[in-house]
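hey can u run this one w/ glutathione bound, need the structure tokens asap thx
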Amino acid sequence: MTIEIDHLGLSVSDYEAAKKFYTAALAPLRITPIMEFPASVTGDQPVVGFGADGKPFLWLSGGGPTSHIHLALRAETRAQIDAFHAAAMAAGGKDNGMPGVREMYHPNYYAAFILDADGHNIEAVCHVGPQAAEAGRRAPAKRAAAKKPASRKPAASAKKPAASAKKPAAKSASRKPAKTAARRKPAPKPRKGRR
Ligand SMILES: N[C@@H](CCC(=O)N[C@@H](CS)C(=O)NCC(=O)O)C(=O)O
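ok here u go:
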């Protein structure tokens, strides 16, 4: 049986600031704002849906904060984890765990943790080893070639998040966020009351 979470909503105390923070922090994971609806449409709080491939799965709304949540977002490469941590820190996040392997979960659990302005614990995690992840990052269109046992060097060490983080972060940051015009049906029903 496969169980998947379709989307998650998180209310925040400062909607505009949170939108800016999450836009910056999630860009390295290729997660961008996809839809946004003002209070005049929802009838309650403004909402913005972040996601990828046209599908929002993380909704931020005003009127919060939601009490503590821990959200882990999966990334394909370790470099993305480094870039996420650097971007989130640059956007005002608080470090809650530097990029690195957490063997307590499993040997290739490479993650970084950030606290947002409301104290939510936002994690980016990559579950594949350094060679596989690095191969995917360097040659996404030629995965077959990456399978050669080859003389590939391991991915950049977790000890150097800043150096390896800068390149992809800057690249991603230069990508324009998707337009916020609705490309699908509005997802969540407007909430009536605050928590
Ligand atoms: N500072 C720790 C953070 C570890 C962490 O937050 N782990 C998650 C599970 S993957 C957790 O315990 N979350 C619970 C919570 O944030 O409430 C680290 O760098 O490893």
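The CA atoms of residues 9 and 59 lie 5 Å apart. anyway lmk if its weird
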